[in-house]
Amino acid sequence: MTKGLIIFGGARGIGAATAEVFIDRGWHVVIADVLSDEGSRLAQRLGERAHFVACDVAVPSDIAGAFDAATQALPRVAAVFNNVGIARYGTVDALSLADWELTLRVNVTAQFLAAGHAVRIFREQGGGVIVNTASILGHASQKTTAAYAASKAAVMGLTRTIAIDHARENIRCVSISPGTIDTPLVRIAAEQFIDRSPDELRAQWAAAHPVNRLGSPAEVAATVYFLISDEAAFITGSDILIDGGIRSEAYA
Ligand SMILES: NC(=O)c1ccc[n+]([C@@H]2O[C@H](COP(=O)([O-])OP(=O)(O)OC[C@H]3O[C@@H](n4cnc5c(N)ncnc54)[C@H](O)[C@@H]3O)[C@@H](O)[C@H]2O)c1
User: Fold this and answer.
1) Residue extents of the structural domains in the chain
2) What does the buried/exposed string (b/e) look like for 192-212 if buried means 16 or more CB atoms within 10 Å of the residue's CB?
3) Given a cut of 80, is residue 1 above it in pLDDT?
4) CATH no. for 4-248
Protein backbone atom coordinates (compact mmCIF):
# COMPACT_ATOMS: atom_id res chain seq x y z
CA MET A 1 0.00 0.00 0.00
CA THR A 2 1.20 3.52 -0.73
CA LYS A 3 2.64 5.10 2.38
CA GLY A 4 2.46 8.58 3.83
CA LEU A 5 4.92 10.64 5.86
CA ILE A 6 4.22 13.75 7.95
CA ILE A 7 7.19 16.14 8.17
CA PHE A 8 7.01 18.78 10.88
CA GLY A 9 9.34 21.54 9.72
CA GLY A 10 9.27 20.46 6.09
CA ALA A 11 9.13 23.79 4.25
CA ARG A 12 12.89 24.28 3.87
CA GLY A 13 16.30 22.89 4.80
CA ILE A 14 16.57 19.26 5.94
CA GLY A 15 12.78 18.82 6.05
CA ALA A 16 12.30 20.02 2.47
CA ALA A 17 15.11 17.77 1.21
CA THR A 18 13.43 14.85 2.99
CA ALA A 19 10.08 15.64 1.38
CA GLU A 20 11.78 15.50 -2.04
CA VAL A 21 13.39 12.12 -1.36
CA PHE A 22 10.15 10.53 -0.18
CA ILE A 23 8.12 11.97 -3.08
CA ASP A 24 10.78 10.72 -5.55
CA ARG A 25 10.37 7.24 -4.07
CA GLY A 26 6.60 7.14 -4.42
CA TRP A 27 5.45 8.23 -0.98
CA HIS A 28 2.74 10.75 -0.08
CA VAL A 29 3.98 13.58 2.14
CA VAL A 30 2.34 16.17 4.39
CA ILE A 31 4.56 19.18 5.01
CA ALA A 32 3.57 20.89 8.29
CA ASP A 33 5.30 24.21 8.87
CA VAL A 34 4.87 27.83 9.97
CA LEU A 35 6.23 29.07 6.64
CA SER A 36 3.02 29.00 4.61
CA ASP A 37 4.39 30.53 1.40
CA GLU A 38 7.50 28.35 1.24
CA GLY A 39 5.61 25.24 2.32
CA SER A 40 2.78 25.71 -0.20
CA ARG A 41 5.22 26.45 -3.02
CA LEU A 42 7.24 23.34 -2.19
CA ALA A 43 4.13 21.13 -2.07
CA GLN A 44 3.00 22.55 -5.41
CA ARG A 45 6.41 21.87 -6.97
CA LEU A 46 6.49 18.29 -5.63
CA GLY A 47 3.12 17.44 -7.19
CA GLU A 48 -0.16 15.90 -6.18
CA ARG A 49 1.28 13.48 -3.61
CA ALA A 50 2.58 16.45 -1.55
CA HIS A 51 0.33 18.49 0.74
CA PHE A 52 1.00 21.54 2.88
CA VAL A 53 -0.58 22.19 6.30
CA ALA A 54 0.03 25.43 8.20
CA CYS A 55 1.22 24.43 11.66
CA ASP A 56 3.04 26.08 14.54
CA VAL A 57 4.34 23.20 16.66
CA ALA A 58 4.41 25.50 19.71
CA VAL A 59 0.59 25.29 19.59
CA PRO A 60 -0.70 21.83 20.59
CA SER A 61 -3.97 22.20 18.64
CA ASP A 62 -1.92 22.92 15.47
CA ILE A 63 -0.12 19.59 15.91
CA ALA A 64 -3.46 17.80 16.35
CA GLY A 65 -4.76 19.65 13.27
CA ALA A 66 -1.79 18.49 11.20
CA PHE A 67 -2.54 14.86 12.12
CA ASP A 68 -6.22 15.37 11.25
CA ALA A 69 -5.27 16.83 7.88
CA ALA A 70 -2.76 14.03 7.28
CA THR A 71 -5.22 11.25 8.02
CA GLN A 72 -7.53 12.85 5.42
CA ALA A 73 -4.83 13.49 2.82
CA LEU A 74 -2.58 10.43 3.13
CA PRO A 75 -3.44 6.87 2.17
CA ARG A 76 -1.80 5.69 5.42
CA VAL A 77 0.33 7.58 7.94
CA ALA A 78 3.31 5.22 8.05
CA ALA A 79 5.92 7.59 9.49
CA VAL A 80 6.40 10.94 11.23
CA PHE A 81 9.53 13.09 10.98
CA ASN A 82 9.73 15.51 13.94
CA ASN A 83 12.23 17.89 12.41
CA VAL A 84 11.40 21.37 13.74
CA GLY A 85 14.23 22.99 15.64
CA ILE A 86 14.97 26.56 16.70
CA ALA A 87 17.98 28.07 18.45
CA ARG A 88 18.09 30.94 20.94
CA TYR A 89 21.59 31.94 22.01
CA GLY A 90 22.81 33.12 25.41
CA THR A 91 24.60 32.03 28.56
CA VAL A 92 22.34 30.99 31.46
CA ASP A 93 22.69 34.39 33.14
CA ALA A 94 21.66 36.20 29.97
CA LEU A 95 19.14 33.97 28.21
CA SER A 96 15.55 34.93 29.05
CA LEU A 97 13.19 32.41 30.60
CA ALA A 98 10.88 33.04 27.64
CA ASP A 99 13.59 32.01 25.15
CA TRP A 100 14.51 28.94 27.24
CA GLU A 101 10.87 27.84 27.44
CA LEU A 102 10.17 28.50 23.76
CA THR A 103 13.20 26.44 22.74
CA LEU A 104 12.15 23.50 24.92
CA ARG A 105 8.54 23.79 23.76
CA VAL A 106 9.36 23.84 20.04
CA ASN A 107 12.27 21.39 20.08
CA VAL A 108 11.06 18.79 22.62
CA THR A 109 7.47 19.26 23.83
CA ALA A 110 6.24 19.32 20.23
CA GLN A 111 7.98 15.99 19.58
CA PHE A 112 6.34 14.53 22.69
CA LEU A 113 2.89 15.69 21.51
CA ALA A 114 3.39 14.54 17.92
CA ALA A 115 4.65 11.16 19.11
CA GLY A 116 1.49 10.72 21.17
CA HIS A 117 -0.70 11.28 18.09
CA ALA A 118 1.55 9.06 15.99
CA VAL A 119 1.48 6.17 18.47
CA ARG A 120 -2.32 6.24 18.62
CA ILE A 121 -2.53 6.06 14.81
CA PHE A 122 0.25 3.48 14.44
CA ARG A 123 -1.32 1.22 17.08
CA GLU A 124 -4.57 1.09 15.08
CA GLN A 125 -2.76 0.15 11.89
CA GLY A 126 -0.18 -2.26 13.31
CA GLY A 127 3.00 -0.16 13.35
CA GLY A 128 4.93 2.86 12.16
CA VAL A 129 8.15 4.84 12.54
CA ILE A 130 8.99 8.13 14.28
CA VAL A 131 12.23 9.96 13.48
CA ASN A 132 13.12 12.81 15.83
CA THR A 133 15.77 15.37 14.95
CA ALA A 134 18.34 15.86 17.70
CA SER A 135 21.77 17.37 16.95
CA ILE A 136 25.49 16.99 17.43
CA LEU A 137 24.88 19.62 20.14
CA GLY A 138 22.94 17.00 22.08
CA HIS A 139 26.24 15.07 22.36
CA ALA A 140 28.78 17.85 22.91
CA SER A 141 28.17 21.53 23.35
CA GLN A 142 29.04 24.91 21.93
CA LYS A 143 29.18 28.14 23.92
CA THR A 144 25.89 30.04 24.41
CA THR A 145 23.69 27.12 23.31
CA ALA A 146 22.38 26.12 26.77
CA ALA A 147 18.73 25.97 25.70
CA TYR A 148 19.34 24.34 22.32
CA ALA A 149 21.84 21.77 23.66
CA ALA A 150 19.56 20.85 26.57
CA SER A 151 16.62 20.45 24.20
CA LYS A 152 18.56 18.21 21.83
CA ALA A 153 19.88 15.99 24.63
CA ALA A 154 16.26 15.68 25.80
CA VAL A 155 15.21 14.54 22.32
CA MET A 156 17.48 11.50 22.66
CA GLY A 157 16.02 10.55 26.05
CA LEU A 158 12.49 10.95 24.71
CA THR A 159 13.37 8.84 21.67
CA ARG A 160 14.82 5.97 23.68
CA THR A 161 11.76 5.86 25.94
CA ILE A 162 9.24 5.91 23.09
CA ALA A 163 11.24 3.12 21.45
CA ILE A 164 11.13 0.77 24.42
CA ASP A 165 7.54 1.64 25.41
CA HIS A 166 6.18 0.77 21.97
CA ALA A 167 8.61 -1.76 20.50
CA ARG A 168 6.12 -4.58 20.92
CA GLU A 169 3.52 -2.66 18.97
CA ASN A 170 5.80 -2.66 15.91
CA ILE A 171 6.49 1.04 16.42
CA ARG A 172 10.08 2.20 16.01
CA CYS A 173 11.49 5.52 17.17
CA VAL A 174 14.97 6.81 16.32
CA SER A 175 16.72 10.16 16.46
CA ILE A 176 19.26 11.71 14.13
CA SER A 177 22.09 14.00 15.13
CA PRO A 178 23.34 16.08 12.23
CA GLY A 179 26.66 17.93 12.36
CA THR A 180 26.65 21.26 10.57
CA ILE A 181 24.38 21.01 7.54
CA ASP A 182 24.22 23.77 4.95
CA THR A 183 20.65 25.03 5.50
CA PRO A 184 18.91 28.40 6.05
CA LEU A 185 19.16 27.81 9.83
CA VAL A 186 22.96 27.67 9.62
CA ARG A 187 23.16 30.65 7.26
CA ILE A 188 21.01 32.69 9.67
CA ALA A 189 23.15 31.54 12.63
CA ALA A 190 26.30 32.65 10.75
CA GLU A 191 24.82 36.13 10.27
CA GLN A 192 24.48 36.60 14.06
CA PHE A 193 28.24 36.91 14.57
CA ILE A 194 29.53 40.42 14.15
CA ASP A 195 33.29 39.77 14.32
CA ARG A 196 33.47 37.51 11.24
CA SER A 197 31.63 37.36 7.92
CA PRO A 198 29.08 34.57 7.36
CA ASP A 199 31.33 33.04 4.65
CA GLU A 200 34.37 33.02 6.96
CA LEU A 201 32.31 31.39 9.67
CA ARG A 202 30.88 28.72 7.41
CA ALA A 203 34.42 27.90 6.20
CA GLN A 204 35.54 27.65 9.83
CA TRP A 205 32.62 25.38 10.68
CA ALA A 206 33.39 23.23 7.64
CA ALA A 207 37.02 22.88 8.73
CA ALA A 208 35.91 21.77 12.20
CA HIS A 209 34.54 18.60 10.62
CA PRO A 210 37.20 15.97 9.81
CA VAL A 211 35.74 15.69 6.28
CA ASN A 212 36.41 19.45 5.91
CA ARG A 213 33.00 20.42 4.61
CA LEU A 214 29.44 21.04 5.74
CA GLY A 215 26.89 18.29 5.25
CA SER A 216 24.07 18.65 2.74
CA PRO A 217 20.34 18.41 3.48
CA ALA A 218 20.18 15.58 0.90
CA GLU A 219 22.66 13.51 2.93
CA VAL A 220 20.46 13.81 6.00
CA ALA A 221 17.32 13.07 3.96
CA ALA A 222 18.86 9.86 2.59
CA THR A 223 19.58 8.69 6.14
CA VAL A 224 16.02 9.47 7.23
CA TYR A 225 14.73 7.47 4.27
CA PHE A 226 16.85 4.48 5.28
CA LEU A 227 15.78 4.73 8.94
CA ILE A 228 12.10 4.77 8.00
CA SER A 229 12.47 1.91 5.52
CA ASP A 230 12.02 -1.74 6.45
CA GLU A 231 15.78 -2.19 5.86
CA ALA A 232 16.21 -0.51 9.25
CA ALA A 233 13.66 -2.73 11.02
CA PHE A 234 16.11 -3.70 13.80
CA ILE A 235 17.07 -0.10 14.58
CA THR A 236 15.06 1.51 17.37
CA GLY A 237 15.90 3.82 20.26
CA SER A 238 19.24 4.72 18.65
CA ASP A 239 20.62 8.11 17.82
CA ILE A 240 22.33 8.19 14.41
CA LEU A 241 25.14 10.72 13.99
CA ILE A 242 25.36 12.29 10.52
CA ASP A 243 28.27 14.52 11.37
CA GLY A 244 31.26 14.27 9.04
CA GLY A 245 33.23 12.72 11.90
CA ILE A 246 33.11 15.75 14.22
CA ARG A 247 31.96 13.75 17.26
CA SER A 248 34.86 11.30 16.83
CA GLU A 249 37.68 13.82 17.12
CA ALA A 250 39.05 14.83 20.53
CA TYR A 251 41.85 17.11 19.25
CA ALA A 252 42.23 18.69 15.82
N1 LIG B 1 21.44 22.70 9.94
C2 LIG B 1 22.22 22.17 10.87
O3 LIG B 1 23.45 22.35 10.87
C4 LIG B 1 21.63 21.32 11.94
C5 LIG B 1 22.52 20.62 12.78
C6 LIG B 1 22.01 19.81 13.77
C7 LIG B 1 20.63 19.72 13.94
N8 LIG B 1 19.80 20.43 13.12
C9 LIG B 1 18.37 20.29 13.34
O10 LIG B 1 17.76 19.87 12.15
C11 LIG B 1 16.42 20.35 12.09
C12 LIG B 1 16.18 21.09 10.81
O13 LIG B 1 17.12 22.11 10.73
P14 LIG B 1 17.38 22.97 9.41
O15 LIG B 1 18.81 23.37 9.47
O16 LIG B 1 16.83 22.32 8.21
O17 LIG B 1 16.53 24.26 9.85
P18 LIG B 1 15.67 25.31 9.04
O19 LIG B 1 15.46 26.47 9.94
O20 LIG B 1 16.27 25.55 7.71
O21 LIG B 1 14.32 24.50 8.88
C22 LIG B 1 13.50 24.24 10.00
C23 LIG B 1 12.06 24.23 9.55
O24 LIG B 1 11.24 24.23 10.74
C25 LIG B 1 10.25 25.22 10.58
N26 LIG B 1 9.79 25.72 11.87
C27 LIG B 1 10.47 26.51 12.73
N28 LIG B 1 9.71 26.76 13.80
C29 LIG B 1 8.53 26.11 13.61
C30 LIG B 1 7.35 25.98 14.37
N31 LIG B 1 7.21 26.60 15.56
N32 LIG B 1 6.34 25.23 13.89
C33 LIG B 1 6.45 24.61 12.68
N34 LIG B 1 7.55 24.71 11.90
C35 LIG B 1 8.58 25.46 12.37
C36 LIG B 1 10.90 26.30 9.76
O37 LIG B 1 9.95 27.16 9.17
C38 LIG B 1 11.69 25.49 8.76
O39 LIG B 1 10.92 25.14 7.63
C40 LIG B 1 16.24 21.20 13.36
O41 LIG B 1 15.65 20.42 14.37
C42 LIG B 1 17.66 21.56 13.74
O43 LIG B 1 17.78 21.83 15.12
C44 LIG B 1 20.26 21.22 12.13
Assistant:
1) 4-248
2) eeeeeeeeebbeebbebbeee
3) no
4) 3.40.50.720
